[in-house]
Amino acid sequence: MIKNYKTCREKADNFGKIFVLKNNQPDAVLFSITEYERLSVIIEYLESLEGEEISKFIDSLPIKGNKERYSINHLRSDIK
After folding, report:
1. Which CA distances in Å does 73 have to 16, 33, 39, 49, 77?
2. How many other C-beta atoms lie within 10 A of the C-beta of residue 44?
3. Which of 16, 54, 71, 77 is deepest in the core (most CB within 10 A)?
């Protein structure tokens, strides 16, 4: 990432985030500023919840979701 920071930053802008690998394992995530700001609002909201509100929120989450899963090879191809 150090050698290709500009490319990594551009990919983070395009994809919202990229994973940084260490020893072929995800080690960190580089977020675009847009994605960071979006997540910050969500985190601040969750931190403001108390007691019963937290339980209601957790109960409202889907048991199964449409989460994209990425293989290590997919992550590697994204940063090249």
Report:
1. 19, 25, 26, 38, 6
2. 9
3. 16
For residue range 26-47, what is the model confidence (pLDDT) as tens digits?
A: 899 999 999 999 889 888 888 8
Model-level pTM greater than 0.90?
Answer: no
Integer Rg of the chain from CA: 16
Under DSSP, the state recorded for 2 is -
How far is residue 1's CA from residue 71's CA, in Å, rounded to a whole number? Answer: 19
Token pair in block for residue 56:
């209601």
Residues near 50 by beta carbon (within 8 Å), at least 6 away in sequence: none
> How far, in Å, CA of 21 to CA of 16, rounded?
17
What are the tens digits of pLDDT across the range 9-29? 899 999 889 988 889 888 999
